[in-house]
Amino acid sequence: MSSDDGDLENQAEVEEKTRLINQVLELQHTLEDLSSRVDAVKEENLKLKSENQVLGQYIENLMSASSVFQTTDTKSKRKFVSNFTSQDPDIPTAGPQQAHRCAVLKAIQLHSDWTACQNDKANNRQ
């Protein structure tokens, strides 16, 4: 075996090692990017949960303040909201958080429309 053959083999090994090192580094960067994305999604998820709790409490307060939404038990309220979300074609089925958020916003809009209607009736009586 000549020294040229040995040099070529060493050069091929070095090139292969360099290629593998670059591939490992690229995979590490991809993993870091994915990890950052997961953290961002978790943070957004927590934010949406918090917003949903606030909106849910707001809807509950609206419902308890309005005689239209008064029911005798909490199961009926849950059933109303469940039926409301499952039967409305405007509420997307992409995910439970998005569907809940849309249902809450739709309920707020319905309450707002109902209140405006009641105000119009009251104004017409005067």
Automatic annotation (TrEMBL):
Which compartments is it annotated to reside in?
Answer: Cytoplasm, Cytosol; Golgi apparatus membrane; Golgi apparatus, trans-Golgi network
What is the superkingdom listed in this entry's lineage? Eukaryota
Q: Please report the record's description of how this protein sits within the membrane.
A: Peripheral membrane protein
Q: Entry's Pfam families? A: DUF2205
Q: Which residues form a coiled coil?
A: 17-51
Q: Which UniProt keywords apply?
A: Coiled coil, Cytoplasm, Golgi apparatus, Membrane
Q: Which InterPro entries match?
A: SCOC
Cellular component, GO annotation: cytosol; Golgi membrane; trans-Golgi network
Function of the molecule? Positive regulator of amino acid starvation-induced autophagy.
Q: Its family? A: Belongs to the SCOC family.
Q: What is this protein called?
A: Short coiled-coil protein
Task: State the organism named in the record.
Answer: Monopterus albus (Swamp eel)
